[in-house]
Specification:
By secondary structure, the chain is α+β, with helices and mostly antiparallel strands. Helix content is about 35%, strand content about 20%.
């Protein structure tokens, strides 16, 4: 199998995912159409890498709410909005929260297969302009026949179910969330994101509208987190079953041993709603040699894994194990881990299952502090991991995300 190299990676800042309203101003990116957000990301990676866009075989983009302004194949339309040559194609995919990393992995697969020489993978999500759930499909596509076999529940209830089953306390979740905020604050203060981060411009005026991540709250305290109320308790009490069962009761049909779900996640220990886009340029050995490029890293292995879809968020352990097995590696061989902080329990569970020390995990903060722009997050995490490997002069990183419906994805990269 041919090698696939990472030539470069860039991302936008994460802007708060809210529109302007009477309650206050919107996020820093809410006035930028998502096509334009992605188009600027494509322009930036071409400029940053020095690669002529005409040499790009395809652009593969992850996006979760592919409707309205994010519909109509946002990948292709962003290529056109970026003024790239007409010959450059684009395709959009949806693997829920794993979409951005799946797009990068598909780019790597195209290169590894020998059918493509230079592919861009990435993602985009404007959660302010196209809110989560805008496609109307819910978690199951509104399929009543599927619901007769299985009723899925919102992810926050699944996260609290995992915490209840495995004995993760509110205090443990809050402690992890506090570290995420402090790590992100230190990374911003130290300028650790600057090599991949670029300022997004207003497409009409050229004025920079956002240069830095908006979501981190480095002044967060343990007392402040402790005062927050569990955010999914009211949702769990919502009657949604055919006989009036609550969502909590529906989840417990699969897990009757629990008795009662302890709602322990808060807004402070769950991922933030943000806008953003990211891109990763992947090239073949022949491409980098022909263009005199020194690649930054190579793909070692990729994997996906499925899990029981009610509990939903447990598969990162299995996806990571599969990727490690393919690479002939052990968890201890990985220098840095990026485990998406959809909810605090997700990285905590993987760390426990695979005996991964905290000081190797999300060392510059995660989605709790920085936010989770659904379709873009996976590509952002890979770029963050690569930047930090270089900064620390380390070699290997594993990136993994839990995914709605009971899936996960993992990728191992190694610096060249």
């Amino acid at each position: 199998m041919a090698k696939a190299y990472i030539i470069d990676a860039v991302r936008t800042p994460r802007g708060k995912g809210r529109k302007h309203s009477e309650r206050g101003p919107g996020g820093g990116l809410c006035d930028v159409h998502p096509q334009e957000l992605l188009a600027q990301t494509l322009q930036q990676i071409a400029s940053h890498s020095g690669v002529d866009p005409a040499g790009v075989d395809d652009v593969v983009i992850g996006n979760v709410s592919s409707v309205g302004e994010q519909g109509s194949n946002i990948a292709r339309n962003a290529v056109l909005a970026a003024d790239w040559p007409d010959v450059v194609t684009g395709v959009t995919l949806n693997r829920f929260c794993g979409s951005g990393l799946q797009a990068v992995n598909f780019a790597a697969m195209g290169v590894m297969s020998g059918q493509q020489d230079c592919v861009i993978g990435g993602g985009v999500e404007s959660m302010s302009r196209v809110p989560m759930g805008s496609d109307g499909g819910g978690i199951d596509g509104q399929n009543t026949h599927l619901r007769k076999k299985l009723i899925q529940v919102p992810q926050g209830i699944s996260a609290d179910l995992i915490a209840t089953l495995e004995g993760f306390s509110r205090e443990q979740l809050d402690a992890f969330a506090l570290q995420s905020q402090h790590y992100a604050g230190a990374a911003v203060e130290g300028g650790y994101f600057k090599s991949s981060l670029f300022g997004v411009k207003n497409p009409e005026t050229g004025e920079i509208v956002l240069e830095a991540d908006q979501h981190p709250r480095p002044s967060t305290t343990a007392d402040g987190l402790a005062r927050l109320k569990p955010v999914f308790a009211r949702m769990g009490a919502h009657a949604a079953g055919p006989a009036g069962e609550t969502l909590d009761q529906l989840a417990l049909v699969r897990y009757p041993q629990v008795g009662e779900i302890q709602h322990v996640h808060t807004a402070g220990s769950s991922s933030g709603i943000v806008d953003g886009a990211a891109a990763v340029m992947v090239g073949s050995e022949a491409f980098v040699q022909a263009h005199g490029i020194k690649p930054r890293a190579r793909f070692v292995s990729v994997a996906t894994a499925g899990a029981e879809p009610v509990i939903m968020l447990t598969a990162p352990t299995d996806a990571s194990r599969k990727a490690l097995k393919k690479a002939g590696m052990q968890p201890s061989d990985i220098d840095l881990w990026e485990i998406n902080e959809a909810f605090a329990v997700v990285p905590l569970q993987l760390m426990r299952n695979l005996d991964v020390p905290r000081d190797k995990v999300n060392v510059n903060g995660g989605a709790i502090a920085l936010g989770h722009p659904l379709g873009a997050t996976g590509a952002m995490l890979l770029g963050t991991a690569l930047d930090e490997l270089e900064r620390r002069n380390l070699n290997t990183a594993l990136i993994t995300l839990c995914i709605g419906g009971g899936q996960a994805i993992a990728t191992i990269i190694e610096r060249v």
